[in-house]
Write a structure and sequence with these properties.
Radius of gyration: 11 Å
Number of helices: 3
Largest sheet: 2 strands, antiparallel
Strand content: 15-25%
Helix content: 25-40%
């Protein structure tokens, strides 16, 4: 899997996206706001599973299986 770290305002998000993509646009727009970055990236078509579980929970309110 081609995985790269995106560092934004001290946060790191694991994603499976390549540079020059929507993720870079979102990174630039939301430098100090990891939840803004996650939301932006998902709106631009990056799948939720590309982000670590803790970010999905804190930013998107996702619950684990019951």
């Amino acid at each position: 899997m081609n995985e790269r770290l995106i560092v934004s305002g001290g946060y790191r998000a694991r994603t499976g996206v390549k540079s020059g993509s929507a993720a870079d646009e979102c990174k630039a727009a939301h430098q100090d706001d990891i939840c803004g970055y996650v939301s932006c990236a998902i709106e631009k078509g990056i799948p939720e599973w590309a982000f670590p579980w803790d970010q999905r929970v804190s930013c998107l309110g996702k619950r684990g299986p019951s």
